Here is the input.
Amino acid sequence: MPAYPREELEAMVERWLQANRDSERDGTWARHLATMYTEDAEYSWNMGPDQEFIARGRKEIEEIALGFHMEGFEAWRYPYDRVLIDEKQGEVIGIWRQVAPAVREDGSPYEVAGVGGSWFRYGGNQQWCWQRDFFDLGNVKALFMELAADGKLDPAVKRKIAKLAKGQKLPGVEPLRHIGLLKKLRGFLAMARIVLLGK
Here is the structure.
């Protein structure tokens, strides 16, 4: 991985943060972010033990990652709390939060617990060539359940959850490995034994 001038990476990070603020302002993620990737960039995140999302190339990033997968999240905010820059490797880590537009009855925001972030690789010319998001999937699911229980889960998100629950494939989602139904059942029974019997 090539080294880059620190000032160049700092300028890229500032452009990225501003583009994120602009996206949050008007809810159009692809419009502000898509051009910040190289033509052959790759963008991915994990969706659990047996599947992963991956977009290959700027077109897929624009249409699928920032388009389809951001439907229902247009009004969410992703404020960055910390950014770490490694100019020697040309990489950046950004730590962010996921905050829903709705608030609870007590006035507190619906926010995913835990830590979320993005790991970027710089490709020169003020563009990322690789991005890997990470977040606590268990906490995301818990927040979605709370939003659903309170009648505040966006319809587009509900449709995607329903498709996943029925085993339908979402764009860009690829299997990691297949865990058979029998093995899942054995795992459930083993965990039940641990909970009930302590062994």
User: Anything to note?
Assistant: The domain at 6-197 is CATH 3.10.450.50 (Nuclear Transport Factor 2; Chain: A,). The chain is about 40% helix and 25% strand. Helices lie at 6-26, 29-33, 58-65, 137-149, 155-165, 181-197.
